[in-house]
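Standup notes
- DV: blocked on the single-chain target, sequence here:
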Amino acid sequence: MMKFRFRRAAPFAAVSLLWLLPPLVSLGMPAAAFAHAYLRASEPTNEAALKTAPKEVAIEFTEAVAPRLSGIAVEDGAGARVDRGDLHPEGQEGTRLGIGLPPLKPGVYTVHWHAVAADDGHKTAGSFRFTVLAP
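- DV (later): unblocked, structure below
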């Protein structure tokens, strides 16, 4: 009868150990090991409807990025790239990148970005859209 109870308890103990393992392992790892440069804010914002076309797209990340390994591309509704290609860091913290835009016609534009974290080299990527309204 003792063996029967042990056999029933073994799966529960194994599942409990697996549930506790990630928090226990993470206690011994530095916080930077989990860091990634995610989009914190952008100008224009996702799904913005703008009366005036922006002169640039600026993205702020959750941590410093390596500008030479990161990028921003802006495409029109047909998928043609429309930005000036002049990616530049903004601010002192290294968390913000910008790219210039020519005068934009009314339409929907998609911003594609990728960022490589300066401290650990992890890459993240994403996209968002904004619309320039007709006058």
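- Follow-up: Confidence is low (pLDDT under 50) at residues 24-33.
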